[in-house]
Design a protein that fits this description.
- The protein is 41% helix and 23% strand.
- It is globular, with a radius of gyration of 18 Å.
- It has a five-stranded parallel β-sheet with strand order 2-1-3-4-5, sandwiched between helices. It has a four-stranded antiparallel β-sheet with strand order 6-7-8-9, with helices on one face.
- It has 230 residues and is an alpha/beta fold.
- The protein binds calcium ion.
- The site of calcium ion has 5 residues, from loops.
Length: 230
Amino acid sequence: MKSPTRYVVIEDELAIRRFLRASLPSGETEFFEAETGEAGIQLVAQKNPDIVLLDLGLPDMDGLEVLRRIREWSNVPIIILSARGQEKDKIGALDAGANDYLTKPFSYGELMARVRVALRYSERDNVGAAREFAVGDLRIDFEARQVFVAGQEVRVTPIEFKLLLALARHPGKVLTHNQLLREVWGAGYTDSTHTLRVHMGSIRQKIEKNPSQPLYIRTETGVGYRMLAD
Ligand code: CA
């Protein structure tokens, strides 16, 4: 039998903790909760969870600070729970190593979709680097540096390939503008989101059936981009 998934939830809102406790299937889940950042950090250290759900607005300290402290010693997947309109905080959290975020109020379906991707992504990290990525009709061969759509090779520029590679190495995960710029162009270009948009437009022309309604690379408005997970 599969061992239960261990959750640590760091959230001061009782309603949200109740909702999570009630929704997560009890046989398959172990659920630990903390109301403050300090208690949450301790709980993560003690329980060695599979996943952490972290609220950004905590009574004793900033959720971002909690995230940074956990990231000093743990790679556990962390999903941020944020209030609407906290775009800047979300970006800061992703840049600081959060795996994903959910905007309140969120549904059980949204939560489980994000949790599944975060868990799979962390398992994949342990397995080591894959040689290729495939989803739908899109296939990216990392070693040969080739991109195929429905079996046909698509010519991409070196920059476009680097962008595709960055996203395809983390399917289902939002990469922020900063993370992509740093990865593709290096540390000096971190504020040129316009450049990023131009290259993304060009990639979409090449890989998407309908570039204005992209299937493979989704725009997370104001935050970054996300590659479809298989
Ligand atoms: Ca809160």
